[in-house]
């Protein structure tokens, strides 16, 4: 691929970004698009309607960029929570490290690569991109020490910045826990795999067990009932049967002139039943049996102190590890109710099944990757399809096919990955929505790195892939040869999936389309906050980490990629800040638990970069550079182990020191009784749940967290509500 084809792709994506960002600055000022671009403010009741007739509405302006720049981290922490701040710290870290890498590699490594071989260089736009890679450095060159020096600078700078960020996020997490108001999840333990006793109900078993073994800390408990559409229909059917049986048993038919079509009685012979539950509940003992059958082997157990709850969640409750399994309960808004009734013994089978399904999906995804690889190789494409030779001889068309089309095809295919992985994560049995999103984030990350990088690097056909993997000991050398050959694809992927995707993210194309249909076709003018979305960490975080992985891997091999990556991260800094401020609502909080994923991925990127460099130095016959790379590799692993011992326990466990201080503080202030009262209704999930959520919507001007989860909103209320929820669901399925 020539440099001119790369410039063509850069020009197309720059034009797309400029047009979309300019259009966004106009559309966000239109009053009809409030629910699209100011969903969070609309939900919190802080949006003020502006003059609809101002001419300023139709002029592009960078005001949103200035607002995103001026917002402090404390304000972002208040608005988006610790997860949002941790996500933005990834981008800040990437800007810092790739600024250092770009300066070092573009001014030291790139000239060495370009002038490595004493050959006659063509005009720069006609130069092949391989002329800017390490493949242009001859074997045994003394200038390879420049690459080794750059490798040391990048690794040391990355480790220092990683340590500072890890330390800062860990401190913020501790402060977040210490400074948070009393939450039901602090005092609640989720108990699963409760043993079945035919002589007593699950509720009696829970009360007896925790009264015997946790008498000092046990407060009360609440059983988890089976939920879901099928269970609800069965329960409603059984209740209706009991109502009709009770009604027919009590009523006596009287003969009359006007006969009833059901029983021969007069028209007023049916008794009107009260809508109160007590009118039916007192008829027989069958309802008690129905309630017992709805109970599953899981319960929320409430404790008197935070410390007692944490101790109960971390110790082994029984000699059988598969019974009385305890975990800290998620926040009420974070509970994934439909997974609580899953038998605990099925979880390991579900995890294996989802793993096999993810591998099968990964193999199926080889088809679009193979198509993409065929498009990047123009000569192979002409041999396979001879009738395209005349068209591909046209310079602009060939540049479009090889420089832009492959990355677009792969991006479109990747739209199916996040919703599929979210489905797999839900099938695993996650008990919280944040846990489900975290699991999906890891799956999407592994899937993306494998398919975008490894599959594309090794070959464009499955047969050749198998041949490459047959020689395991030569993998570093093969990667060192293959990565520079894929320079064109990686650069165009950064432009298309990076620059253009950020413009589409800020535009909110699908919610905008749904809003247009609702406002201008269906004529529904109500701006309801029910379709407000939470931040899609499972789609955006893997994308950011993938670009970081590409940046580290290609830094000394293909330094020309670093400026394009740096532009992406700078643009992402403003776009994601704006989205957190205006669009997304923080419905649940994991306390920054995404950061260990970021740290581990970055360490893997550094180690992989060093392995590739070791293969490069071996191919270029530079034993000195290879020898200096080994201590760097060992030092990186030691740094990872130190951080794992120093910071990771903070994200996995709760500090007893902080919990005891919080308990003493609440006892001294007299808040404990109020907390105990709140615990009784905190984890209620019944048919009246939606009614309480609707009451929260009416009071959304008082509290931003009162936005209902779209998954719990009943369909059929009104058409505008359906459009809003449909926008939320499909938007996340496309990301």
UniProtKB/TrEMBL annotation:
Domain CSC1/OSCA1-like 7TM region, residue spans: 350-617
First-listed, main subcellular location of the protein, grouped into a coarse class: membrane
Subcellular localization: Membrane
Domain CSC1/OSCA1-like cytosolic: 186-339
Residue ranges occupied by any CSC1/OSCA1-like N-terminal transmembrane domain in the UniProt entry: 5-163
Top-rank lineage group of the source organism: Eukaryota
Region (Disordered): 691-713
Assigned keywords, A-Z: Calcium, Ion channel, Ion transport, Membrane, Transmembrane, Transmembrane helix, Transport
Gene Ontology cellular-component annotations: plasma membrane
Transmembrane segments: 6-27, 86-110, 142-164, 352-376, 396-417, 444-463, 544-576, 597-618, 624-643
Pfam families: PHM7_cyt (PF14703), RSN1_7TM (PF02714), RSN1_TM (PF13967)
GO molecular function, one term: calcium-activated cation channel activity
Alphabetized InterPro entries for the sequence: Csc1-like, CSC1/OSCA1-like_7TM, CSC1/OSCA1-like_cyt, CSC1/OSCA1-like_N
Membrane topology of this protein: Multi-pass membrane protein
PANTHER family registered for this protein in UniProt: CSC1-LIKE PROTEIN RXW8 (PTHR13018:SF117), PROBABLE MEMBRANE PROTEIN DUF221-RELATED (PTHR13018)
UniProt record similarity statement: Belongs to the CSC1 (TC 1.A.17) family.
Official protein name in the record: CSC1-like protein RXW8
Source organism per UniProt: Ziziphus jujuba var. spinosa
């Amino acid at each position: 691929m020539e440099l001119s084809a790369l410039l063509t792709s850069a020009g197309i994506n720059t034009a797309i970004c400029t047009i979309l960002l300019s259009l966004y600055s106009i559309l966000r000022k239109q009053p009809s698009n409030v629910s699209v671009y100011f969903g969070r403010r609309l939900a919190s009741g802080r949006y003020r309607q502006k003059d609809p007739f101002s001419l300023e509405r139709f002029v592009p302006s960078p005001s949103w960029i200035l607002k995103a720049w001026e917002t402090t981290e404390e304000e972002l922490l208040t608005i988006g929570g610790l997860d949002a701040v941790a996500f933005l710290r990834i981008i800040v870290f990437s800007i810092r490290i790739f600024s250092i890498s770009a300066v070092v590699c573009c001014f030291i490594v790139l000239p060495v690569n370009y002038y490595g071989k004493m050959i006659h260089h063509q005009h720069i736009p006609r130069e092949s991109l391989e002329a800017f890679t390490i493949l242009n450095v001859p074997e045994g060159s003394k200038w390879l020490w420049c690459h080794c020096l750059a490798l040391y600078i990048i690794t040391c700078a990355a480790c220092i910045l990683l340590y500072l960020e890890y330390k800062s996020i860990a401190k913020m997490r501790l402060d977040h826990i210490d400074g948070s108001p009393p939450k039901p999840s602090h005092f609640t333990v989720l108990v699963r795999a409760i043993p079945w006793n035919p002589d007593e109900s699950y509720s009696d078993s829970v009360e007896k067990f925790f009264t015997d073994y946790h008498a000092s800390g046990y407060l009360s408990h609440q059983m988890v009932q089976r939920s879901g559409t099928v269970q609800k229909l069965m329960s409603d059917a059984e209740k209706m049967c009991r109502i009709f049986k009770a009604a027919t048993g009590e009523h006596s038919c009287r003969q009359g002139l006007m006969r009833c079509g059901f029983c021969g009685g007069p028209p007023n012979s049916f008794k009107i039943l009260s809508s109160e539950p007590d009118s039916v509940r007192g008829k027989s003992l069958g309802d008690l049996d129905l309630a017992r059958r709805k109970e599953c082997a899981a319960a929320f157990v409430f404790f008197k102190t935070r410390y007692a709850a944490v101790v109960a969640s971390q110790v082994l409750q029984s000699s059988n590890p598969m019974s009385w399994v305890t975990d800290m309960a998620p926040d009420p808004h974070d509970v994934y109710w439909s997974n609580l009734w899953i038998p605990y013994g099925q979880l390991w089978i579900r995890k294996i099944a989802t793993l096999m399904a993810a591998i099968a999906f990964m193999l199926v995804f080889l088809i679009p990757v193979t198509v993409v690889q065929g498009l990047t190789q123009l000569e192979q494409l002409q041999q396979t399809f001879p009738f395209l030779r005349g068209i591909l001889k046209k310079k602009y068309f060939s540049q479009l096919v090889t420089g832009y089309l492959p990355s677009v095809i792969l991006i479109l295919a990747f739209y199916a990955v996040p919703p599929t992985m979210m489905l797999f994560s839900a099938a695993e049995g996650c008990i919280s929505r944040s846990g489900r999103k975290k699991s999906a984030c890891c799956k999407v990350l592994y899937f993306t790195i494998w398919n975008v990088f490894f599959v594309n690097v090794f070959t464009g056909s499955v047969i050749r892939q198998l041949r490459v993997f047959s020689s395991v000991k030569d993998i570093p050398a093969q990667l060192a040869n293959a990565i520079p050959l894929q320079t064109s694809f990686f650069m165009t992927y950064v432009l298309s999936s990076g620059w253009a995707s950020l413009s589409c993210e800020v535009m909110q194309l699908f919610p905008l389309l749904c809003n247009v249909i609702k406002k201008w076709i269906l004529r529904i003018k109500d701006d309801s906050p029910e379709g407000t979305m939470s931040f899609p960490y499972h789609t955006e975080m893997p994308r950011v980490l993938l670009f970081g992985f590409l940046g580290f891997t290609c830094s000394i091999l293909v330094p020309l990629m670093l400026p394009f990556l740096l532009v992406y991260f700078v643009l992402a800094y403003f776009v994601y800040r704006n989205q957190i401020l205006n669009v997304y609502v923080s419905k649940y909080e994991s306390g920054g638990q995404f950061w260990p994923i970021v740290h581990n991925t970055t360490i893997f990127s550094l180690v992989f970069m060093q392995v590739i460099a070791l293969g490069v130095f071996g191919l270029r016959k530079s034993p000195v550079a290879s020898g200096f790379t080994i201590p760097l590799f060992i030092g990186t692993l030691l740094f990872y182990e130190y951080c794992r011992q120093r910071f990771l326990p903070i994200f996995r466990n709760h500090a007893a020191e902080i919990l005891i201080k919080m308990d003493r503080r609440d006892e001294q202030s007299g808040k404990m009784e109020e907390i105990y009262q709140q615990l009784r209704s905190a984890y209620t999930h019944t048919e009246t749940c939606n009614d309480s959520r609707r009451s929260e919507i009416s009071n959304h001007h008082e509290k931003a967290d009162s936005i209902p989860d779209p998954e719990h909103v009943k369909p059929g209320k009104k058409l505008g509500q359906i459009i809003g929820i449909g926008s939320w669901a499909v938007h996340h399925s496309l990301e």
